[in-house]
Automatic annotation (TrEMBL):
InterPro entries: Tetraspanin/Peripherin (IPR018499), Tetraspanin_EC2_sf (IPR008952). Keywords: Glycoprotein, Membrane, Transmembrane, Transmembrane helix. It comes from Chloebia gouldiae (Gouldian finch). Belongs to the tetraspanin (TM4SF) family. GO terms for cellular component: plasma membrane. This is Tetraspanin-4.
Length: 129
């Protein structure tokens, strides 16, 4: 059920690819498709709706070159990005979890030290005033 909602939202996001003000999303899709060797959310035909033609971004190409996304489907990655990234996350769940916990700990320590410093400054102002 969650998979269907996630895929639907990702497919909506494809329509923002390459548009003004969405350079982050465009770069994210390009990096994902290049690094994970995949194309589109469920397959490369997801891009046909975005471009209204038989075309994919150049990041979908087996061998990257300018306008390679205009060539035949035989030169594009076939794997679906959603499933590929999902499998990668499942295989690396422990590492992702540890990274998340470490990041949270650093944030909590930073807040604690900031609050301690604030209290010391307020206390010093009270005694010195």
């Amino acid at each position: 059920m969650i998979d269907k909602y996630a895929q639907r939202d990702l497919k909506k996001g494809l329509h923002l690819y390459g548009t003004d003000g969405n350079i982050g999303l465009t770069n994210a899709w390009s990096i994902i498709q290049t690094d994970f060797r995949c194309c589109g959310v469920s397959n490369y035909t997801d891009w046909f709706e975005v471009y209204n033609t038989t075309r994919v971004p150049d990041s979908c190409c087996l061998e990257f070159s300018e306008n390679c996304g205009l060539h035949s489907p035989g030169t594009w990655w076939k794997a679906p990005c959603y499933e590929t990234v999902k499998v990668w996350l499942q295989e690396n769940l422990l590492a992702v979890g540890i990274f998340g916990l470490c990041t949270a700990m650093v944030q909590i320590l930073g807040l604690t030290f900031a609050m301690t410093m604030y209290c010391q400054v307020v206390k010093a102002d009270t005694y010195c005033a």
